[in-house]
Design brief:
Blueprint: E1 3-6, H1 13-25, E2 31-33, H2 44-51, E3 56-57, H3 67-80, H4 90-99, E4 105-107, E5 110-112, H5 133-140, E6 146-149, E7 156-159, E8 164-165, E9 174-175, E10 181-184, E11 198-204, E12 207-213, H6 217-225, H7 232-240
Parallel strand pairs: 1-2, 2-3, 5-6, 6-10
Antiparallel strand pairs: 1-11, 4-5, 7-8, 7-10, 9-12, 11-12
Helix pairs in contact: 6-7
Length: 242
C-alpha cells in the first residue's frame, strides 16, 4: 500500500490544507496521521474534522503544550467548533473519535506510533540521541523492522547502526532494506528544523520520500495573534520553523 504519513498538525489548518493538496497531487489517497492533531494552532476543530477522515489517526501526545493553549483548545472542541459536514452531535463524535484512537498500529514489519516504540505517546527521540547507544538499543528492540513516528517535529531517519540522516541528505529517498530504522516524518503544522514549510513523508514501494510544502504561514500567524488565549510566540515561531 502506498501511503502519505503525516504528524503534528497542531491545529494549523492552512498547513494541513496545503499538505492535503500536495498529497492529492502525488496520486495518494491513503493518509496515516501519527497524532497531535490539535494544540498550539488556531483551528483545532477543522483539523480534527479532517483527521476523522484519514485511514489511520493516533492520539495526541501534546504533553508539553502551553497550559493556556491547551485550555483554549479544549474549550473550542467543546463549544465553539464550526460544523461543516458534521451534524448536531459533532461534539460527541469528536469525543468518541479521540477516545478510541489507537496508541500503536502494526502492519507486518511496519510500526506506527506518535512518540517512540518504547513510549508510544510521549517519548521524544531527537537526532542527538544516536549518541546514546543504550537508549537507542532498547527502543530498536521493540521495533519489528520499520517504525514511523513524530512528536519532535524534527524529520529524519535513524538507523539501528547509530546513524541519523536528515531529509536533505537522502537525495531521491531512502529505500527500506534489512536494517531496522525509525522514520520521523516531521511536522505539518509546526516544523522545528529551521524550515517553516510543512513536512511529511510518502511511502511508496518501500521507498521513503520527504515532502516540504509551503503554506500561507503569515495568515496562520495572524490568526494566532488575534486569539488572546494563545501566546504570540506560538505564531512567531512558525515564521522561523522553530
Amino acid at each position: 500500500m502506498n501511503r502519505a504519513i503525516i504528524s503534528d498538525i497542531h491545529g494549523n489548518l492552512d498547513a494541513l490544507n496545503a499538505v492535503l493538496d500536495d498529497i492529492q497531487q502525488q496520486g495518494i489517497d491513503t493518509i496515516y496521521c501519527l497524532g497531535d492533531v490539535v494544540g498550539y494552532g488556531p483551528n483545532p476543530c477543522e483539523c480534527l474534522d479532517r483527521a476523522m477522515q484519514f485511514a489511520l489517526c493516533e492520539p495526541d501526545g501534546c504533553n508539553d503544550c502551553a497550559k493556556q493553549a491547551i485550555q483554549w483548545t479544549r474549550t473550542q472542541l467543546k463549544t465553539d467548533c464550526p460544523t461543516d459536514s458534521l451534524d448536531d452531535e459533532d461534539e460527541v463524535k469528536r469525543g468518541e473519535f479521540l477516545r478510541n484512537l489507537p496508541r500503536t498500529v502494526r502492519e507486518d514489519d511496519l510500526l506506527f506510533v506518535h512518540g517512540s516504540a518504547r513510549n508510544p505517546l510521549s517519548e521524544y527521540v531527537f537526532p542527538n540521541d544516536v549518541g546514546d547507544p543504550m537508549m537507542m538499543s532498547r527502543i530498536f528492540e521493540l521495533i519489528p523492522r520499520y517504525c514511523f513516528q513524530g512528536h519532535t517535529h524534527v524529520p529524519g531517519i535513524f538507523t539501528e547502526g547509530g546513524k541519523f540522516f536528515r531529509p536533505q541528505e537522502l537525495g531521491n529517498g531512502y529505500r527500506l532494506a534489512d536494517e531496522k530504522v525509525m522514520v520521523n516524518v516531521g511536522s505539518v503544522g509546526q516544523p522545528r528544523d529551521g524550515d517553516p514549510r510543512s513536512c511529511y513523508v510518502l511511502l511508496r514501494e518501500g521507498v521513503v520520500n520527504y515532502r516540504r510544502v509551503p503554506y500561507p504561514v503569515e495568515e496562520t500567524v495572524s490568526k494566532i495573534h488575534a486569539i488572546n488565549s494563545l501566546d504570540r510566540f506560538l505564531g512567531d515561531r512558525l515564521l522561523q520553523g522553530q
